[in-house]
Structure formats: structure tokens, C-alpha cells
Amino acid sequence: MELKTCEYCGTAYDARLRQCPLCGRTAAGPAAPAEPERTSPVPEKSAQSAPAERPAPGRRLRQDAGAPKAARGYAGKRLRTASAPQPSDAQSAPGEAVYAIPKWMMTVLCVILGAAVLGGALLAFSRLGWSPLYRESALEAPVQPAEPAQPEPEQATVQQPAEPAQPDENRYMNEEDQKHDQTPEPEQNESSVSCTSLTLSAPTVTFEEAGRFFNITFTRTPDDCTEPVAFSSSDETVATVSEQGKIIAVNAGSAVITAQCGEQTAQCLVTCDFAYVGTGAAEGDPAELALNKDDLTFMNAGEQYTLSVTGAPDGAKITWQSSDESIVTVSENGVLTAKGKGTATVKAAVDDSELTCIVRCNFEDRSGEGECTISNSDVTMGVKGETFQISLRDANGDKITGLLWVSSDLSVCSVDGTGVVKAEGNGTAYVSTTYNGVTYQCIVRCNIK
What we know:
The protein has a four-stranded mixed β-sheet with strand order 4-11-10-7, with no helix packed on it. Strands 13-20-19-16 form a four-stranded mixed β-sheet, with no helix packed on it. The chain has two helices and 29 strands. It has 449 residues and is mainly beta. Among the domains are: 1-37 and 55-110, no CATH class; 199-272, Immunoglobulin-like (Sandwich), CATH 2.60.40; 364-449, Immunoglobulin-like (Sandwich).
């Protein structure tokens, strides 16, 4: 509703009225007639009613004490009139806000807003750790702040160039020669089981051609033994053996294959009964022929040894002959076999040259109980690195194992724990062992040229 203020009495009234309802003056003219006495409104009885007569303007009356004051800005006093009806809540009095909010609604809104602010403050304090409950729990169980982990400096990794693929070694090999990848097995907590007995499938092996092979097997007790079996050759120039027990003939001669499992050992005598495979002499150089042994002693009937000729040209024909086959025999490949007591000579004819080896068969009488026999009592070797097997047998002819063999001069010959004697240099030495308080020895002569 638009209001305007009277310039004379300062009363605010409806702008649609032409004159002030209090003083009866208009905004641009003389004073309006005096305001009639206010009375209670009377409902209209008919649609057409006569307009009320406007009273003539008059002078202001003195306002009695207790009468309502005039509107703001009015300097004079209002006329004393009858009490006017108070405007209802639906109709706003002149000068008041039309859309004012009720007090009860304002109270409710204030309560809701206050509760929301209080709840938000409590939530913020609890998140920041300022809550009294949080402080009590922190005092009961103080938590040590975790130290931040120090990042380790990264080490620069240098990429190595990829190595070219190596050719497969197993591509052109037999199945028994292939080297299988041995991946380490996880260690077991169970205690290891030691080997108590070890035997080989063959005590002796004879080859008649270089390159031949024989797969030797072993048997050990107990069956759940955990110790590995290792094979070795006393002379790899004669015969070699693989980790799986494959023996390959290399050249003429004799060698001992030893299998070892823990403290137990087993041996196999390998004889290569074929012509010596030499490199031959160069053209224009004189060939120097020699036997691998020129003096040999046998202590037991049936004992064998292979003679070979060094320095023979390739394809040379070698003829062997024994002076007394009742004492020793020789095959066409130079394999000697002891037959009886005595001394004989074995000759090797190469083209126009002839080589001789002295063979002694000293078979001792073993009729007495408790007596032992050494396999060799006098041996002569002429090539450095040459080997032979020495052993000790009891009265029944059984081989005695676990003996300690000793050489009197290691610069002349050496001997290992299995009795393999090896020529080291010129001279004479003794190889001996002691069994049941009796010492047995063999004379070793090394005439290396």
C-alpha cells in the first residue's frame, strides 16, 4: 500500500485519498473541512448507499491526556475521537510491514539454526581432536607417531647386453651322455643316511676298439642312502668315465675306475685291448719307438696288463710274441696274461724295429692260512705319468680294501688311496702297505727317457 504524509499535520495516510483524514487538508489547496466524528463501521444494507457527508474543516482540539499520540512527524495534537477499530493480522496498519514473519515462526527458526550451528561445531572439534572425549582416550593410551620411512635411494641399474644363445651341447649326443640340468633341490630337515656298502655291476671291463663304451652301475646299502656316488678314472688317457658311470675307451692300456659313496669305494679294472692310437711322426722326422713298459712283474695267475708302442706311425702293423707262453701270453693287441711261475720276454715288432719287455711271474705259495699276497713286487715304468694298480689279497684270493698305501719317494712315484701308482720321475722307490702288523712292499723303477 502506498502512503503519503500530510504537510500540515504530518499524518501518514493512503495515497488514494485526496485529503488528510485527520486535518482535512489537501496537499495543494486550502484546509479541508473538519473530520467528522469517528464511529464504528456499520455494515451496508443496500448496494447503493448515500455517500457520507464530509464535515467542514475546523480548528484542532486540545488532546486530552491518555489519548493516542499522532503519527511520527506530526507536531500538533490529534482530535479526541472515539476508539477506532484495530487492524487485524491479515490487514497491516499504515506504516507497518505487510509481509512481517510471526514471532512464533521466528523463534522456531532460531532454535533450528542454533542447533545446526552447535552440531557443526561439535563435529569440527571432534575431527580436529579438540573433543573432551578424544582427549581422555588419548591420555589413557598415548599413541606414538610413526616415523616416516626413509626412502632408500634407488640404485641405477645398468642393463647388460643380452648374451648370444649358446648352442645346445645335448643336440648331437647320445641320451646317456647328455648333461641334464641339475636344479638344486630344497634342503630337507631330515638327517642324511650314510652309505654302508657299495658294489659295482662289473669288476673288470675289456675294450677291443677305441671309442667303445660301457655303462657301469652300482648298488649301495641302505636303499635310502642320501650320499651321492662319484666316479673317477686313474688314467683318462686310457679310459674316461662320466658322472653317470659311462666308461669310454680312449687308448691302449689299463686304468682303474673308482666309485666312491661317502667312505665306501668300489673299483673296476678297465683293459683296452687294441693297438695303440698314436699321432705318428711328422714327415722327415725319425720315429722314436718305445714300449710303455719294459719290465713287468705278475704276482697272481690270470693277472693282465696291456703293452703299447709309443711313436709308431699311423697304420703301422705291430706283431707281438712271447718267448714262453706257459709263463705269459700276449694277444695281437699287446694284452699280457700271467700263466705260471718264471720269467719270459715279450717282443713287439714294428716294421724293421723290435722292442722287448721282461715279464716276471712270481707266484708265491698261499697255502698257509693268514698269509697275504701283494699283486706286484717289482715294476719298471718308462713313461712319465704311466700308472698301474697295486693290490693286496688274502689267503682266499679276496682283495683287501681300505688299505693305506705309501710311497717312499714322491718325486719318483706317487700312490693314491686305492693303490694306483703313477710314475713321476727317474729313480727307484718303494710302495708299501701294512696289514695285520705285516708290511708288504713293491719296488718301483722309473726309467723315463
